[in-house]
C-alpha cells in the first residue's frame, strides 16, 4: 500500500506542477493497481512516470491518466494508473483523492 500511495502522490504532484494547479485542487478519481511481484525490504523501490495522457475531465476540467511503475533493481513490482483532474471541491470522505 505504501508503493501505491507513493505512486499516487507522484502522479498528483507531477500533474499539479505541469499544469500550475495548486496541489490541493488536484484529485485522483480512479486507480488501476497491478502488483506483479513482492517488494522486498532490502532495496528501496524506484517510482517513475512511464505514461501521461492528457485529456479533458467531465465538466471541462483539466485531466490526465498517469501511469507510474515501481521497480526494485531490474524487477518491476507494480504498475499503477491514476485518473487525475483539477477541481474546486474538496474530496468527500471515502473518495480516493
Rg, Cα atoms, Å: 14 Å
Detail the poorly predicted runs: 91-97
- Determine the strand fraction and express it as a percent band: over 45%
Structural class: alpha+beta
The proportion of residues forming helix, as a percent range, comes to 10-25%
Give the strand tally: 4
Instruction: Write down the overall geometry.
Output: elongated
Lateral arrangement of strands in the main beta sheet: 1-4-3-2
Instruction: Give the N-terminus to C-terminus distance in angstroms.
Output: 15 Å
Give a structural overview.
- The protein is of the alpha+beta class and 97 residues long.
- It is built from 1 helix and 4 strands, in the order H-E-E-E-E.
- The chain has one helix at 2-19; strands at 26-35, 46-56, 62-72, 75-86.
- The chain has a 4-stranded antiparallel sheet with strand order 1-4-3-2, covered by helices on one side.
- A hairpin with a 5-residue loop joins strand 2 and strand 3 (62-72).
- The longest helix has 18 residues, at 2-19.
- The protein starts with a helix and ends in an 11-residue tail after the last strand.
- The model is unreliable at 91-97 (pLDDT under 50).
Topology:
Elements: H1 2-19, E1 26-35, E2 46-56, E3 62-72, E4 75-86
Antiparallel strand pairs: 1-4, 2-3, 3-4
Amino acid at each position: 500500500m505504501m508503493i501505491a500511495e507513493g505512486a499516487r502522490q507522484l502522479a498528483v504532484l507531477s500533474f499539479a506542477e505541469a499544469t500550475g494547479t495548486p496541489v490541493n485542487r488536484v484529485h485522483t478519481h480512479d486507480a488501476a493497481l497491478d502488483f506483479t511481484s513482492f517488494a522486498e525490504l532490502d532495496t528501496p523501490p524506484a517510482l517513475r512516470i512511464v505514461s501521461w495522457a492528457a485529456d479533458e475531465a467531465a465538466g471541462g476540467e483539466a485531466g490526465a491518466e498517469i501511469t507510474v511503475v515501481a521497480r526494485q533493481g531490474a524487477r518491476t513490482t507494480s504498475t499503477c494508473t491514476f485518473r487525475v483532474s483539477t477541481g474546486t471541491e474538496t474530496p468527500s470522505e471515502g473518495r480516493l483523492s
